[in-house]
Amino acid sequence: MTHRDKTPSRGTSPDRAGHGRTEEELREALRVLAGGVLPDPDAYRTARGEWLRRERRRRLVLAVLITVVFTLATLIGLWVLNQAPSDPGVIFSGTGAPVADGTSLPRPSP
């Protein structure tokens, strides 16, 4: 700690003249000001109503968002399935019988 750290700043000493009087005047002024404030009798009911209204709105927005996402996913899925080729592929040739008359592939010898 240096000498400068031990020295109080100018004008902050507790024994300064008028310091206690100004503080008391400020306290008195704030006490009078606070005494003139009257609470609104419907303050709680109003605040609770606003909170419930916001909660309902959040739930409605969430329900609409879920519905939109589900609908879009369904439509995109149907569109993708509709884009598949309609002609049969190699696996499903439509004959129904396995092809056994051709030669099989050579097997490696152990």
- Low-pLDDT sequence parts: none
Q: Give me the count of strands.
A: 0
Largest sheet, strands/sense/barrel: none
Seen as an oligomer or otherwise, the chain set is single chain
Helix content: 55-70%
- Alpha plus pi helix count: 3
Principal-axes shape call: elongated
What Rg is obtained from the alpha carbons, in whole angstroms? Answer: 42 Å
Q: In percent, how much strand structure appears in the residues?
A: under 5%
What series of H and E elements makes up the topology?
HHH
Q: Structural class given helices, strands, pairing?
A: mainly alpha
Distance between the termini: 87 Å
* Overall pLDDT metric: 80
What does this entry show, briefly?
The protein has 110 residues and is mainly alpha-helical. Helix content is 55%, strand content 0%.
Describe this structure as you would to a colleague:
- The protein is mostly helical and 110 residues long.
- The chain is 55% helix and 0% strand.
- It contains 3 helices and no strands.
- The chain has helices at 3-6, 19-35, 43-82.
- The radius of gyration is 42 Å and the shape is elongated.
- The relative contact order is 0.03.
- The model has no long low-confidence stretch (mean pLDDT 80).
